[in-house]
Design a protein that fits this description.
Layout: H1 2-25, E1 32-34, E2 40-42, E3 50-56, H2 65-76, E4 81-87, H3 100-110, H4 129-138, E5 150-153, E6 159-163, H5 172-181
Length: about 180
């Protein structure tokens, strides 16, 4: 009986170690969101570029940051930055829209042309795995506390920086981090 217990403990430890090793070797490009159009939005397609992933909402006091996100997208998209909006209803139920409604709102009101996911949970029981990975990489700084929290992933797939909601997307602080994270040609 002790042998069975020992073998069960060894198997559990092996499984736990395997899970930790996999989580430790994952990169920011190993995740897929659902796009606003219902099609998969795999980050793998952006491998080798820098990603600025921002949880957004259409009825938030910070919704005006869509304009800054579009500005930084336009300024850096040809240099290797991909801005990705991830609408979320996790904070104050400020994202009532889904799918193409989100895209239409963003395009009509802010001229958004960068990629958008469909509404996604960024915290809680149904938190998207990307946000769990981000927390493993950068701790509490990567955990969204409100809408328009920003996560910058480098072209190597590693966490490059995080920015709180109040940091404007086109600010010098974000631009400096983006400049440092851009792919080196």
């Amino acid at each position: 009986m002790n042998r069975r217990l020992f073998l069960a403990a060894c198997a559990t430890l092996l499984l736990f170690t395997s899970t930790l090793t996999k989580a430790g070797t994952m990169s920011g490009f190993d995740f897929t969101f659902n796009g606003f159009d219902g099609k998969p939005l795999p980050f793998e397609q952006y491998r080798g570029k820098a990603l600025l992933v921002v949880n957004t909402a259409s009825e938030c006091g910070y919704t005006g940051q869509y304009a800054g996100l579009e500005e930084i997208w336009q300024d850096y998209k040809d240099k290797g930055l991909i801005v990705i909006g991830v609408p979320s209803n996790n904070f104050g139920a400020q994202e009532p829209l889904k799918g193409k409604q989100i895209q239409n709102f963003c395009k009509l009101n802010y001229g958004v042309t960068f990629p958008l996911a469909d509404r996604t949970d960024v915290k809680g029981r149904d938190e998207h795995p990307f946000y769990k990975w981000a927390e493993q990489q950068a701790g509490e700084a990567a955990v969204p506390k409100w809408n328009f929290h920003k996560i910058l992933v480098g072209p190597d797939g590693k966490m490059a920086a995080t920015f709180a909601t109040v940091v404007e997307p086109a600010s010098d602080q974000v631009r400096k981090a983006v400049d440092a994270a851009l792919p080196k040609n």
